[in-house]
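Data deposition worksheet. Section B asks for the primary sequence of the deposited chain exactly as it was used as input, without tags or linkers unless they were present during the calculation. Section C holds the resulting structure in token form. Section D is free text for depositor observations; keep each observation to a single sentence. Incomplete worksheets are returned to the depositor.
Section A, Depositor: J.P.
Section B:
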Amino acid sequence: MERRTTAKVRLLDAGYSLMLSKGYPATSVDEVCEAAEVSKGSFYHHFKSKQELAMAVLGHHMDGAKEVLEAGLDLEGLQGARRAIGYVKHVEEGAEDLWCDGCLIGSFALEIAETNPELRAKVSEIFIGLADHFEQVFTPLCVERSASTAPSPRELAEQFIMVIEGGVVLSRAHLDRSYVTRAIRCFRRYLESLAEK
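Section C:
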């Protein structure tokens, strides 16, 4: 049983690396098997198809990303807007490591939106889950800033995702990981300006 678990994890890790670097359409099952150092039979023992592997990779990747994102997060003593800003600052500080190779979810959204409805739906589901999480983060700030001109927690959550994804795209385009950090820093400063109003 231990061998199967190890082979499956190696397949997930290899699938993630290859799909992130080459893209989903350009990644073959043979390449995944070679990178994972497992046989094709082992691949098909764990996954029925490349699409099923991609779905599992997305889930596996998100679990790992959440752990990395929350690692070391210390918001004790922070309330309301300061708590939301502290969360964003924590993400900002880890951004270059977290998104150093790009974002598989964003890559999939661009590559397969029109050609693979099941993967597109999975990507959409993940983005909705992230927005749900970030909405909870930003709710205390919005409660404090209840002016009619203030954005809603959901709007801030979705904007935060757009900021991250835009920073990742620029980081990859310019081969400079600092773009994602700078994008999140600008968003944090925007939140600080909201909190001061």
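Section D:
The CA atoms of residues 80 and 144 lie 7 Å apart.
The chain has two domains: 1-56, 72-196.
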